[in-house]
Structure prediction request, 296 residues.
Amino acid sequence: MTSRLILGKDVSEEIYAELRQRIGALKAKGTVPGLAVVLVGDDPASQVYVRKKGEMCESLGMHSLTVTMPAETTQEQLMEKISELNADPSVHGFLVQLPLPKHLDEKQVINAILPSKDVDCFHPENVGRMLIGEPSFLPATPAGIQQMLIRSGVETKGKHVVVVGRSNIVGKPMAAMMVQKGLGADSTVTVVHSRTENLAGITRQADILIVAIGKPRFITADMVKEGAAVIDVGTNRVDDPSRPSGTRLVGDVDFDAVKDKASAITPVPGGVGPMTICMLMANAVRAAELSAEGKR
Prediction:
């Protein structure tokens, strides 16, 4: 079997074209969607990610604000900045880039962001709304995966989705979204994790296998059902002496072994990765639309 590649670049470009139309409609009514990102400290991966978010905002014609704060920022100073952004009418959505320096309380930070501006969808109110099927926003990476399934024609209705991993960022929200009624959902969902017994026996039952466990090439060919759709969320850096950098990125799935067994598969890099920023932009535009409608 030759599997079909599902590429994040293709799906995200389709969504960006739709967002540009929505942004144009907002601007015609006097609203410029605004997204702010708070970066505390100098984590290199976070810096790259924040820069990309800013560049994408600019390319879409959105108002972009990046707030950089030193690693020694106190909890009080960060909470003050969050209050400022909550009150800023030009900022329709914002996020505090994670991970934070160890001395800062992540939970307190997440809870302080207004739910109407919480474009990461981490606030308990937004998580609860997602769970009952009445979301204002959806978390970016799971939402991106769902759009990849919808737009690449992978049928989810009545299918068995197995999610490998139970993080608050991908695993749990992914499971909650796939079990809802509606397009790109209506699935039977099983979540497996590090304490699951007979994990391979369960992954072999999956019509759609979504893997977000953070272990390079963890899913091997014998763990995948013939003809399954495989979505690999992992990004792991492994040694590769043949590369100038000495390393390369691989997913949580052994791509070379699994691609001949899957009906559709996402590569790493180039699969789910581009969708996260894309869906963050979609959430920021949605926040601006709700604000313009006076609903938030």
